[in-house]
Amino acid sequence: MLRILGIDPGSRVTGYALISCTGGRGAPTLRYVECGVLVTDAADPPERRLAEISRGVREVIEEFTPDVAAVEDIFYCKNVRSALVLAQARGAALVACGLAGVPVHAYAPAQVKRAVTGNGRAGKPQVAQLVAVLLGLRRMPRSDASDALAVAITHAHFARAEALIGAARAAS
């Protein structure tokens, strides 16, 4: 069983999610464990918000002991300042993972959408709906938490593919 922490970084709201993944020869079996958001106060200075993100991710790691983390990569932003702020929030989450010894894998937004919906240009509502279906959720989580679940699901699919490739190479 693989415990995957998904992270959707944001300077105001960072989504997190934990799923477990098991699998034999077929598609992986995904099980929802937890999801939520870390909310920072916009009135706080950036260093305090970044510390809060890092502390929150660290607490999630301590509580749920994931084997690996999957983080959404930074996408193209027209506003350079927005991209820098997002990169800082992502960095705060990565620091927490690094200090805890949790390996991190990054996925571009289009990869996440494609892994969950089959369409790299799917909208957020479609991704959220399919996340709920794939994990058997009774209600839709908050948008940022849903995005974190989607990132975790993406890693489950990529990790499964890598395991199958490794097994095939070992057998030949």
Concise account of the structure shown:
This protein is of the alpha/beta class and 172 residues long. It is 52% helix and 22% strand. It is built from five helices and five strands.
**What percentage of residues falls in helices of 4 or more residues?**
40-55%
Distance between the termini: 25 Å
**Number of distinct helices:** 5
The 3D shape can be described as globular
Strand order of the largest sheet: 3-2-1-4-5
Describe the fold and architecture.
It is a single chain. The chain has a five-stranded mixed sheet. By secondary structure, the chain is α/β, with parallel strands linked by helices. A hairpin with a 6-residue loop joins β2 and β3. α1 packs parallel to α2 and α3 packs across α5. It has one domain: Ribonuclease H-like superfamily/Ribonuclease H (Nucleotidyltransferase, domain 5), CATH 3.30.420.10. It has five helices and five strands; from the N terminus they run βββαβαβααα.
